[in-house]
Write a structure and sequence with these properties.
Layout: E1 5-10, H1 13-16, H2 35-38, H3 41-46, H4 48-64, H5 69-76, E2 82-87, H6 93-97, E3 102-104, E4 107-114, E5 121-123, E6 141-145, H7 155-163, E7 167-171, E8 192-196, E9 209-212, H8 216-229
Parallel strand pairs: 1-2, 1-7, 2-3, 7-8, 8-9
Antiparallel strand pairs: 4-5, 4-6
Amino acid sequence: MLKKKLIIFSGAGMSAESGLKTFRDNDGLWENYKVEEVATPEAWERDPKMVLEFYNQRRKQVFDAEPNKAHKIIAELEEDFDVEVITQNIDNLHEKAGSSKVLHLHGELLKSRSTAYPFKTYPMDTPELNWGDTCELGAQLRPHVVWFGEEVPNLGIAQKICEEADILVIIGTSLNVYPAANLVFYAPEKAQKFLIDPANVLVRDLKNLKIIQKKAEEGMEELKQTLLSHPV
């Protein structure tokens, strides 16, 4: 018997209980930086060393972080469902928890890439990426992340994955970052949909939606019980 297709669409709230700050807290800043200062192509052109240092600090946090119970439950659900994770997060906590199919929409912090040859990416086993670190062809390396104003290369792949959903779980995202936020509307109308977030996330015109207004860990516990005891 074929397993039902369970698609997880995760955002920053997914990793918050692992100690990683959400992209922008209530003051509109990300780790005391304005987004324009550290997460745009213009910021890189203006002050690449500051951008590198900002991401070095984020990378140190990710190296130290461990997946939380919500990450682990998602990985465990692979026993009963065909699970694919689409994440806006640039950390590796889904993979650390054991999820086998993870698509990163906004890049991966634990990789670098060549500024001149974007197809050349490199795994990082150290938090530090510095000015003067180059690919084998001599081009400066940059964080392998999607900055504001850049295209989202994996968006088309993510759309196709959502189209196959029997169940769609939206967790830890405000659905305010576009174009990623539009992905939820690619799931079939008949697919059962769950939104897990402690905040009042406004979602219009999404059919078959159940809201679980809890943080990621508690919300995934409830969802797991629902899925396994009352199959949708």
